[in-house]
Automatic annotation (TrEMBL):
PANTHER family assigned: MITOCHONDRIAL INNER MEMBRANE PROTEASE, MITOCHONDRIAL INNER MEMBRANE PROTEASE ATP23 HOMOLOG
Similarity section: Belongs to the peptidase M76 family.
One Pfam assignment: Peptidase_M76
Protein name, per record: Mitochondrial inner membrane protease ATP23
Species assigned in the record: Cettia cetti
Chain segments carrying region Disordered: 1-30
The enzyme's E.C. designation: 3.4.24.-
GO biological process, alphabetically ordered: mitochondrial protein processing; mitochondrial proton-transporting ATP synthase complex assembly
GO molecular function, one term: metalloendopeptidase activity
Keywords assigned: Hydrolase, Metal-binding, Metalloprotease, Protease
One CC-aspect GO term: mitochondrion
Highest taxon, organism lineage: Eukaryota
Amino acid sequence: MGEGAADSPPPAEKKGAEEDEDDFGYRLFPDRSKKPQSFLVRSLFTFHNKCQLMLKLTLETNPYARLLLEALKQSGCTVFNDRHFSCENCDGCVSGGFDAATSQIVLCQNNIRQQSHMNRVVTHELIHAFDHCRAHVDWFKNVKHLACSEV
């Protein structure tokens, strides 16, 4: 081996570190990388059905969600409930997220238990969806874009 070889980590360690850097928070949403479960399994053995019902109620009755959905539509980004929202199990520290790669709002069915919480999460994530649509936010390379959307 050459002299500098002891200073650099083995290739496997380098790969793991690079994957951590490129994770973009997906580790908090483990269901994003799994094969989808059947409807029966999702409905009977998870909070999926309750999540879907709470989402439907939010989208139909919450004035902020309705305002944001209309703003998205006016900006040319119509939202389809079955395409742009996904109820999934997540890490215990998050309630939802916006996946820019798929333009999907992820709702953490195992962490959202009350309608008021669902209302807040959907509204917050719809703001990110609007910013993604209208302002073409660079989520991972421009921290000012991310900060602006969070405020």
